Amino acid sequence: MTQPRTRTLLYVLLDTPKLNCVSWPRFQVLWSNMASNAADKLQVPRLAKVRVSQATYKRWLAGTHVARGDTRTILEFFFGKNVEALRQMVPVREVVLPRSVDRRTRIAAQTLDYTWPTSRHLPGEPDAGIHATWELASGRHWDGTTIGVQFYEAEPCGDVVLVGAADLPHLRSFVRSSRRGLVLASLGAAGGAGLYVMDTALTRQSLAVGQEPRVPLAYQLDDFTYAIIWALHVLDDGLLADDQPLSDRADELQHYVKISTSTPPRSDMPDLSPVGVAWIGSSLCTRYIARHLDDLSEAPVFWTREATGEECAPWLFFRHKHDHLQAVARLFAGPASALGCFFCVPESAVRSSEPYERILLFLTVAMMEMHGIKVWMSSAPEYAQTKAVVLAHNRAILANWVREESIWRVATTSAPREVAPYREAITHARAHSIIDGQTPADRLHALASYLDLDWTWLTGRCRALSKEGLSRMLRPRSRLLTLKALDQTLLFLGAVGGRSGGR
Fold it and tell me: What's the domain of life for this entry (predicted)?
């Protein structure tokens, strides 16, 4: 392994971009200011007249001479370190600086600060040489997170954008770190618009096999891709933060699945983050339902409590959710099946949600329809607090974790007075569904209208993203998450939109 070059600490400090005063002419100007400042602040007037020869300065840089007297005082005052430390040899790391970006790219970067309320770009613009941070703020339930980002100028090339060859050295340096990060390619200098997103891990893979990173135009940052980026990263980092405690509780979950009723308080698991609590609550409820599915003599109907995109995000990414949907579809889905799922999304929930969050809700309903699970939706506020339940004949399987005071609440009952409220909610939602229709396309089109989402744009984005695949844009790190089912949902929606036209 090549040993890193070494320089004195004095040399390294003078060579920083802020000072850039290693050369003798520049150091002379700096020294004059250093001496005057020390004289003023230390109230020792003679320091302002202290001068240094070029030969002495070179010996300082080489570490072969230790400053003494007034020169020592000035150096130590300015750098805040004693001269013995300044002459010590330290490793010099090669730093590859990015090129400055175009004015239009700087303007595009600012959109991260004002387009979405849960998005903030620090330091606020892509300054050359500064690795920036993209803050994805918390929503109503989940904690936020941060991602490292770097902007690069790119050129359009067919249906992709290419980062220029001059930026590849810095790009290789940026993606080499194992930290989470995103590359944001901009067409600003090329006279274009928009930012195009790719995970650094996927960029690193392309560079490793000798390929220039190609960012598809479909990966343009907008409400649709931001929704996925925000939800995935918030859930991913939350689960990674809780990886060990979640693993330690595997046996505990098995115990709770086997008992008939349980409502553990949040205080039982104080070490888990909100996302960790959501995962363990969702996982337990899913297993509890699965335990009872084989006993059902007819296709059940599900009432789910999710009413916002943030609450729906686990359906899109939690691996066990997809396994659950597939199992339910295998057992009960079919052309004449009564299998269905009911939502309650009051108008107030729609009005208080940003477009990107409504997209997450839309994708969740589409995922269920893709699995052959017909969806009804009520807008009646009086049913918004109904807990999640599975209803089959006269039996109710309560399995709720959404907006629950405990970590989860599970129970099974056939008592008429306990089943009646759920049957009433489902009967009302079926009779007054705001997304009623004969086909999935009809229902999804009605849902897009209710959520104030443009159907043509929505299905067009699904079609474009499904051709490229989300797994080429982003990569979850937690083994508990997957993009596979969401990719399938995009493909399904793209096809549904193509068949139904603009309507």
Answer: Bacteria
For residue 156, what are the β-bridge partners? 161
- For 350-372, the DSSP string reads HHTS-HHHHHHHHHHHHHHHHTT
Domain spans of the chain? 6-91, 103-221, 235-498
Angle between helices 440-450 and 455-468 (to 10 degrees): 120
The residue ranges of DSSP E strands in 217-305, in sequence order, are 301-303
381 pLDDT above the threshold of 70: yes
Question: What backbone torsions phi and psi does residue 71 show, to the nearest 5 degrees?
Answer: -65, -35
Distances in whole angstroms, Cα of residue 381 to Cα of each of 303, 344, 346, 417: 15, 8, 5, 22
Distance, in Å, from the CA atom of 111 to the CA atom of 221, rounded to the nearest integer, reads 10
Rounded-to-integer distance, Cα 285 and Cα 445, Å: 30
Short-list 318, 316, 324, CA closest to 280? 318
Instruction: Give the Cα separation of 157 and 143 in Å (integer).
Output: 38
DSSP, residue by residue, 276-333: HHHHHHHHHHHHHHHHHHTT-SS--EEE----SHHHHHHHHHBHHHHHHHHHHHHHH-
Q: Rounded distance, CA 494 to CA 464, Å?
A: 8
- Angle at which helix 484-500 crosses helix 319-332, to 10 degrees, equals 60
* Helices 355-370 and 309-317, axial angle in degrees (round to 10): 40
Q: For position 132, what pLDDT does the model report? A: 83
Non-local CB neighbours of 130 within 8 Å, separated by 6+ positions? 123
Answer yes or no: is pLDDT of 361 > 50.
yes
Residue among 388, 382, 313 nearest 140 (CA): 313
Check residue 127 and give its pLDDT: 52
The residue count of the chain comes to: 503
Residue 3 has pLDDT above 80, yes or no: no
Average pLDDT, the chain: 92
- The counts of H helices and E strands in the chain are 20, 15
Helix (H, G, I), strand (E, B) or coil at 263: coil
Could you read off the pLDDT of 262-289 as tens digits, one per residue?
A: 999 989 999 999 999 999 999 999 999 9
b/e per residue, 114-139, with b = 16+ CB within 10 A? eebebbbbeeebbeeeebbebebeeb
Using pLDDT thresholds of 50, 70 and 90, give the confidence band for residue 130. Answer: very low
Q: Give the global pTM.
A: 0.86
